[in-house]
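Two proteins were folded this term; both appear here.
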Amino acid sequence: MFRLAQGFLAFLAILGCLTTAAIPGYPFRYVSTLPWATRVDNLVSQLTLEEMQLQMARGGRGILVSPAPPIPRLGVGPYSWNTECLHGVAYNGAATSFPMAIGLAATFSPELLYHVAPATALELRAKYDYMRHGVYGDGRGLSCFSPVINIMRDPRWGRNPETYGEDPNLSGILATHFVHGL
């Protein structure tokens, strides 16, 4: 009985060595002690020119560009990086819609933006959970396009309502609170 147990343990040890050797070495993914720059350099050095092009050209909005394709040989899954979070999670089904940035700025309340941002982040993570289960679509990435910190300088600019207004000081304070809330 003792020899049988020893043989079984030896078998498990050999099996463990074989399966460990079969796990692909992706230092950019599995060695978290490496600095980010090293991890990024390692990943990019393993990408082909075509893979780099597809990762940069796809992943945004629209049928033709979403999501960025997976790279199975490197263990990289698909990714959708375009998510509009200007006043809540947009373009992705039911979500809370807060007033536009210019309306939030009119309150002169940094604390309000600090509380709006976590609500947006929570809904964004909930929608991102679909992606973990293989359901991809526009606006389901974790890259939040917000806040717009450009200063409103010209009333003809079509994106004025997405800004916090024309006061650089107020815009900076509100944007800082929004980002810290995310």
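Next, the second protein.
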Amino acid sequence: MSSSIRTAWVAFATFLLLLAGWWGVAAIAPSSYLPTPLAIFERLVYFVVEGGLLDDLVSTMINIAAGFFIAAALGIASGLIMGVSRLGRDTIGFFVDVFQSAPSAALVPIIVVILGFGREAMITIVVIFCYFIIAVSTAAGARSIESGLHDMSATFGASRWLFFRKVLVPGSMPMIIVGLRLAMARAFNGGILAELLISIRGFGGKMMYFGGAFDFASLYALIAVALVLTFASMAVISLVGRQLIRWT
């Protein structure tokens, strides 16, 4: 059995154990705060059959996707600069160190004052949640490239573009993929938090509504959907990343 299949089976078995434990606790000590997995599944079926959730989910995913791709472009570019340039580390690196130390949620009021309550503000929040981890991971990958490769490239007269394309990007790719995977989870956190704090609509707005109505089965159903989408997105990034590493 390959290691990937073994890992998948271990993860699945762990999930079943957690599910069984949850079901047992809910059965022994019934509580509206801890609905059974069956009750949550029934709410999921209801959302699928009756609809009404798709529009909110699409709106949220647009914010998440837009913010993630903007953060990826900015984070990879600035991370590569920090990795190969002392000036980049002293300037961009200082900015990254300062702002990633601040709680991301604490910046929301400032963003609202500047951008208002529209989609632009929510996308900006996703960018802030994602950018720093991508930039730091990319910079670490670029700095991990052996200095001998730099010297060899210069010795053979390789242009900066050739060094960038043949050495810097391929050598940094594993850490770039790590940063993108971690940032994807942060993107979902930021996208939903933005809706909770700013607009009270979309997927986050639905969570706020069901939480306020003490409909915890529906709330947990939405959380389950968010978790599935997050893990699926991270899996896609890992799959694409492995292909990119082979090609580069």
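The CA atoms of residues 47 and 123 lie 26 Å apart. The chain has one domain: 53-247. These notes refer to the second protein only.
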